[in-house]
């Protein structure tokens, strides 16, 4: 394996780890349910995507070819995370979950 490949895998793992960490911190620290949805659906999705991409690069250069499993996991993740976040936000709006003070707009109270 070449040095460029190793640097690419390392960069993807570091980027993925950083995004996943930011998503986890956002989930723990943000003030209300609606803002907490952004951590796992935005940052963590990018983090896991970068980590899976590092796996694809690694196993491709090991001679095992491009793994269809990693590609399917990535596609499933990118399709289901935004949809599940949207469903959770709509359920919270339906149940009347409070927003934090200072939030502008209330599109569900029209």
Helix/sheet category = mainly alpha
Helical proportion? over 70%
How many H/I helical runs? 4
Task: Point out poorly predicted stretches.
Answer: none
Question: What is the H-and-E element order?
Answer: HHHH
Straight-line distance between termini: 59 Å
Number of strands: 0
Q: How much beta, percentage-wise?
A: under 5%
Count of the domains: 1
Main beta-sheet annotation: none
On the 0 to 100 scale, the average pLDDT is 86
User: Which shape, going by the Cα principal axes?
Assistant: elongated
Gyration radius, rounded: 18 Å
Description:
14% of the residues are buried. It is elongated and about 55 Å long. The protein is 78% helix and 0% strand. The protein has one domain. The longest helix has 28 residues, at 68-95. The protein is mostly helical and 110 residues long.
Summarize the model shown.
By secondary structure, the protein is mostly helical.
List the keywords.
single chain; 110 residues; mainly alpha; 4 helices; elongated
How is the secondary structure organized here?
Layout: H1 3-29, H2 33-36, H3 38-64, H4 68-95
Helix pairs in contact: 1-3, 3-4
């Amino acid at each position: 394996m070449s040095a460029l490949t190793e640097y690419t895998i390392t960069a993807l793992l570091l980027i993925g780890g950083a995004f996943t960490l930011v998503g986890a911190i956002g989930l723990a620290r943000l003030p209300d349910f609606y803002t907490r949805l952004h951590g796992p659906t935005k940052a963590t999705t990018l983090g896991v995507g970068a980590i899976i991409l590092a796996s694809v690069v690694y196993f491709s250069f090991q001679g095992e070819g491009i793994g269809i499993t990693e590609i399917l996991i990535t596609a499933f993740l990118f399709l289901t995370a935004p949809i599940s976040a949207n469903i959770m936000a709509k359920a919270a709006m339906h149940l009347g979950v409070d927003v934090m003070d200072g939030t502008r707009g209330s599109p569900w109270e029209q």
